[in-house]
């Protein structure tokens, strides 16, 4: 593969390594950070220039003409999704040489094409190359390569045939049947493992934009995190947080981050709690089409989450009798812990992984199902729409699917003097 100047940082390799850790710095950020290993060996300085980041990325460098051919000249019928970042196109390349092939042959790829306006988009593009070019984990989407040619900036990902979690939770149609309880718990566990890896000493990265549209599913419903445009290196040394401008998506950002701009791994834990609650309820984090008092999912659901007897009131009616009461109560209790107003009371993502694994090991997701008669006529299922971006931060996710609807609004910067 082109520009393969270093091996990717994988979860397997780093779990066996006690040497120094290389930290990665996103493009355009005014502050730098370094990492040390558990043995306190000084970390190697990270690439800081655009050229260094691109050179160190263990992915292929594509020519624009190659991607133009692979996507059939970016034909409209090849569009997988659209957003503020630009559009995502379906393409085909040879799985060994990565040269373009005829449609329907070779390996399917998803090509994200950056709109040619605004510096913010370029910074997010470079941040994705920086992180996904260095990190490798089964629950992170694979970056195949990139293109930087004149004003053209593109990213090439593995194709995720089942699209986004957002689609399966909120979109209605024959192509997106409601996810079963077991599949929801499987997806939750996979996404949690991805975040846990990012937070570990192997990576020390804060994702900052965890939400259903950024969780992609492969053919076996294995969850992978995508879109690292807003990711940040975590705090180092004796620092407890990273100070940043507030960015992300309304409804998912932790309250202390919104108030102070202080970013920690626990900020991601809060976002995970929101997504877990969306998976349990089938409702969006923010939905102005709901009745008054139900627009904000966390605020509406919190009283029910604290009551073991009333937990059924927030559960997605489409789940029917697929879950056990004990399993639902434990999943709801985990969501409530993640959503604690005090970040110190939230679990780590590794603890979240352990809790979800216990749910699966106990097979509580399939034993002692609730009677469908018990839930009949409750009427608390979620409403749905398509996954594609509209009113949100700048990016489109490489997924399969179409449709267009209003997306959650982007968070505005509330502390302009702070670095992104």
Automatic annotation (TrEMBL):
An example of a GO molecular function for this protein is: ATP binding
Which top EC class applies here?
A: transferase
Its Enzyme Commission number? 2.7.11.1
Q: Pfam families this protein is in? A: PK_Tyr_Ser-Thr
Q: Which UniProt keywords apply?
A: ATP-binding, Kinase, Nucleotide-binding, Plant defense, Serine/threonine-protein kinase, Transferase
Chain positions covered by the region annotation Disordered: 1-52, 361-420
Superkingdom of the source species: Eukaryota
**InterPro entries in the cross-refs:** Kinase-like_dom_sf, Plant_Ser_Thr_Prot_Kinase, Prot_kinase_dom, Protein_kinase_ATP_BS, Ser-Thr/Tyr_kinase_cat_dom, Ser/Thr_kinase_AS
Does Metal-binding appear among the keywords?
no
Annotated GO biological process? defense response
Residues that hold ATP according to the record = 113
- In this chain, composition skew of type Low complexity spans 26-41
Record field: transmembrane: none
Ranges of residues in domain Protein kinase = 74-359
Could you say which protein family the record assigns here? Answer: Belongs to the protein kinase superfamily.
This one is known as: non-specific serine/threonine protein kinase
Source species of the chain: Oryza brachyantha (malo sina)
* Gene name, Swiss-Prot/TrEMBL: LOC102704669
